[in-house]
Amino acid sequence: MVKGNKKFRLSLMKNVAKMMTVVITMVTTLTISPIHGHALSIITDTLVSATAEVSNDNTIVTVSFNTSAIPTTSLEDLKSNIQIERSDSDTFVDLSVDNGNNEIGMTPEGALVITLDTALTGTTNAISVAAGSVMNEESVPSDADITISDISAHDITPPAFVGAVSDDGNDVYLNFDENFSINASLDSDEDQINTFLKSKLSVATDGEHFVSVTAHQGDIYQNNSRQIYLNYDNDIKVILGTNTIIKIASGTLKDVAGNLNEEMNLQVSPPVIQSTAISSDNHDVTITFNEDVVGNTESLENYIYLVRGSNSIWKHLVEGDTVKIESGKLKIHFVEALSGKTNQISINGGVLKDSDGNVQNDSRLTALIEANVGGIDPAPADTTQPTYLYSYFSNSFQDLNVVFDEDIHNATADEASFLQNVQWYNSNNWYYSLPSDATVTFSGPIATIHFAAPLTGYQYYFYFYPNHFKDTAGNVIGNYVNTNWFYPQNTGFDLDDGYFSQDGRWMSLEFDSNTNLVDQTLIDGISHLNEQITLSTDGGVTYTALDAQDVVTVQGDKINIFFQNPKQQGSIKVKVAANVVSDLYDTVRNSAVDEEVAYNTPDISGYVLSNAVSEFVFADNPVWRSHVKEVVVYDSSIGTDRELTSSEYTLSEGKLTISAGVFLEDHYYEISVDADGYSSKYFEGRAYKSSEIFYITTPVVSVDNGITAKINLFNNAYDNGSIGNQTVLFELFDGTTPVSIVAANLKVNTGTYSANFNVSDAATNPNYTVKVFVVSKYSSDSTNLGLNLATVKTQLEINQAMSNVGNDNHNDD
């Protein structure tokens, strides 16, 4: 042990204590030298390092040096030699520059105390004390700057809301500025934590009237360490309109330091477009939102599009177009002036946010923007990128031709670069560049890729990445260009199906081209396709041309023939010459057609009745009717067929009548009408009592503007194969005297029906009443209304009947 006087021992103990509480960057040095064999000389520590301690409120920083320190001159002089660097800065500033109210002091132990007017934040604060501004007890000043770095402020603030991201009011993500946990009981499991969180959240879509999120089913949970997720089931939106506020009760969120949130009212509605304005010269558009917006991404130009024309053509912004946010509004300058009345601006989701950080994650479209007539640019610049039209192969599938709407050029550095970044499918594999031995040439609006050998695989598809093509003005196509599918082995497409429609009024020939057909018989814009089609009504023995009044059109993948005189035959053979129609790009044409088209039978509608004669109507076809040989009824509840006898049905002009007693109530039937030389005609339905086909409510009568009667009607035969024709009758009575009838003969389904009677004394005559009927027929013969098809029910009874729709309450279908 070093021996010495009492003063020395106390000083030594003091230094040891300091070493235990602060970080010392220099080892204390004691030099013990005997002088003439009598006393010891002590050299004390020099000032070379320090540590800092921050008060609980982050406003006081205590700097403890490696030895006791005192100002070299005065506190005022010392203050002028102290600098501070805060976490959000990368520069030291004088203490007085940081804030004029900052103060300093010294403790009796020789520590520096800095009192800040603005509390510290963050973890990278620093204090620097200039060299020579403090000295030790032996009056030896520091010989270098003493800097304390990475001074951390205490975390004394709870998590702060930094914005919501939502998808059209759903899938709401609440974001916070630091990690947190849900302040549920320590032993809570995940379900209990989520239940606790839900109990602490409420939403006011009007900013005022809050409803707990527990009022709706949905998913509400902490999504990650800084986020809460909310979404309601049943397509109910969490955010509605511009003033939705989500309230988080106090004590719900806890950060790592244990800080709990106060009650938080979070404005979560994202910005909503309110209006657009266009400059007089049509070059500038200003979009105003319900609140100020700021950018949420770099290069706004990449996420904003011009949509124009009745066909809603999308256009990327081009070189020279600019986008900026000024005074909270989005301003777009177009090099090419807008024109016309149908301009719109589309803004990608996630591009803008409000001052609260709220982001709409879905794209938004402005209202139509009408350009000013007087502001048309007399010499507009070409700023429109080329439009890809279609592709086709030529030269026996050795040349791929990619066609655009204007002259096209290579937008890449050279031919080798063009061949890269082209994804293409070759029969069974995807490749990610074209073969190096392929070449590309540009001629007018066509880019031709020439392969070293013809393509012979099963199918091909090409996918050019952005920035491959440009026009003569330098406008580059900034999106993908993808071709149609190609099938080298497909040398012609065949007829896939042929059928009649509308009781023989037209015939459709559907091909398997999977594309829109093109008429290749046009000469000077006039189609000669009808000359390439012939028909046979004798099974192919003889063929005749179409009537001069028959009309032939190409629509989609079909050739349609509209007959001047409907065809009565059950089947017709049709011939179509080869190569008269092609796909859209004329890469393949049709094979010759010689096929029979059948099923030319009339459409039959009506109701299957268990308690009365069943009448089924059709557009009369006397040829078909004269060839009917039998009517077969299949009872699906039993699973058997039976042929009706001649006494059980009659076939007259436009009507098939089946006797009462053939059908059993609630059984489901399939009825086949078989005619010689015709396809069997099938129709089906469940058997009901005639009065149970429809349910109607008692009429509700009002006397505004005459007399209006209204009923709710339910088609109880909801699973009937076809809806029959019937008449809804509204009859007005004055007491017991009939006054007027309004009748609608139509195919009736579930819904609301009404009639109006134009009487002048509707408001003063209390004797008016209205009765409503649903009958199977209505004509000038008022004594024969056919069958009553409806029963009056209460609205509750109708609601209950409607609720059973779709339920399997029957034994057989």
UniProtKB/TrEMBL annotation:
<feature type="domain" description="Heme-binding protein Shr-like Hb-interacting">
    <location>
        <begin position="614"/>
        <end position="681"/>
    </location>
</feature>
<keyword id="KW-0732">Signal</keyword>
<dbReference type="InterPro" id="IPR011432">
    <property type="entry name" value="Shr-like_HID"/>
</dbReference>
<dbReference type="InterPro" id="IPR014755">
    <property type="entry name" value="Cu-Rt/internalin_Ig-like"/>
</dbReference>
<dbReference type="Pfam" id="PF07550">
    <property type="entry name" value="Shr-like_HID"/>
</dbReference>
<protein>
    <recommendedName>
        <fullName>Heme-binding protein Shr-like Hb-interacting domain-containing protein</fullName>
    </recommendedName>
</protein>
